[in-house]
Amino acid sequence: MSEWQERPLEECLATLIDYRGKSPTKSSSGIPVISAKVVKNGRINRPIEQTIAASYYGEWMRRGLPRVGDVVLTTEGPLGEVAQLDQETVHYALGQRIVVLRGKAGILDNTFLRFLLQSTIAQNRLHSYATGTTVAGISQKALRQLPLPVPPFDKQKVIAEVLGSLDDKIDLNRRTNETLEAMAQAIFRDWFIDFGPTRRRIEGATEPVVIMGGLVTDSERAQHLADLFPATTNDDGLPEGWKAVPVSNLIEFNPSEPLRRGTIAPYSDMSSLPTRGSLAEPPIEREFGSGMRFRNGDALLARITPCLENGKAAFVDFLPNPSVVGWGSTEFIVLRAKPPVPPPYAYLLVRHDEFRDRAIRSMTGTSGRQRAQADSVASFVTNEPSKEVLEAFGEIVTPWFSMISANGRQNRTLADTRDLLLPKLMSAEIRLREAVRQLEAAQ
Question: Scanning 88, 129, 333, 371, which has its CA 20 to 30 A from the CA of 326?
């Protein structure tokens, strides 16, 4: 590490833009605001709820405009979360408790800076320079004086490339999963909510790809699917032969699973459920006491305020094999598709806005302690199609969810590799050549 030098951060910066102080004036729509709560785990989480009016952007951003590649750092609540601005997020507004950092050309590479600030070395120093007992925060003066280990610029670029390639693959998998789920949701809505194939046949469509709304592009497969949908509706406006039924006809709610008290089993709680996407955080092993039990293929839906409103839900795919039973708190509802309903159907249903809105309206309890009840949700009326339509839907979307699960598992491996390499590279514990070998093994 002899080539590395301890230098105050200020010496290595070309720009530090500090947006602490008063909050920007919010609007119901407009330009998203990057606040401390959306910067997490090295990225800016979407969707971003806080926005400002486009006409107000110039007035608010008078302290300086960021550039692509600049690093944002949260200075309080929480301290030390880091992300890098891209072509999209560089045009967002900057909120409270956010600073923008830009390295000097030839002195500090921005991508290296992002990883450096995420390292244990930098995180420990950030907190040692912070003040506050309840909420730790760092002043601009202290941040400028923060000593950090900085290698020669050419080594920074290589380290950034090694770690950045892992993040790039993680991001590619994440975007692929978003696309796959969006495709599944589009077909779910078209078939089971809008009755698109039947509606288009009634309107006179004859080409199978057109009948299927362009969501299935192979003409032979589209023809097979189009033949499953009637060209007429019944008195209720449903495709002929379909029925309006309680959701419980298609889905089992909070199914009973044997799990003896004291058994060590995978445990998930509300914090592990995502607000977007189907992938929950991996469970932990914990002794079973009491709670909701589930298996792979089930859907988990948060039932409490504000988690239900925020969209916390997941598709269970993280248990080691089909015989394993997982468990969690009583604060979510477990939904299990009844054959021939394919398992992803239950998850796509809970992600459907109308279903969640009805669940929210069914909540009972005092303010701040409201809960949706499983029996109330189970009584919602939905549409039951033919067995053949359900089976065809499963043939399409089940492989997509398998791919989503595989990408999620790979992302955890890639993130573990990155997190293993990061402190070792930043402390020069391993050489770049060894890091490259570990990188190739992870991919």
Answer: 371
Q: What is the pLDDT of residue 20?
A: 79
pLDDT for the residue numbered 185: 97
pTM over 0.70: yes
Give me the chain's average pLDDT, please.
Answer: 91
What is the rounded distance in angstroms from the CA atom of residue 389 to the CA atom of residue 220? Answer: 16
Q: DSSP assignment, residue 38? A: G
**For residues 119 and 101, what is the distance between their CA atoms, to the nearest angstrom?**
16
- Where helices occur in 189-235 by DSSP H, the ranges are 196-202, 208-211, 219-226
Both tokens assigned to 223: 């023809």
> Which of 298, 266, 271 lies closest to 284, judged by CA?
266
CB-based burial, 77-99: b 16+ in 10 Å, e otherwise: bebbbbbbbeeebbebbbbbbbb
Query: Where does residue 136 fall: left (phi above 0), alpha (psi -120 to 50 degrees), or beta otherwise?
Result: beta
Q: Are 63 and 19 in contact (CB under 8 A)?
A: yes
Report the candidate in 439, 441, 389 with the shortest Cα–Cα distance to residue 419: 439
CA angle 18, 162, 156 (to 5 degrees): 55
User: Which has more pLDDT, 369 or 205?
Assistant: 205
- pLDDT band with cut points at 50, 70 and 90 for residue 231: very high
The pair of three-digit structure tokens given for residue 417, joined into one six-digit string? 């590799």
Instruction: Residue 301: name the closest of 317, 315, 318, 291 by CA.
Output: 315
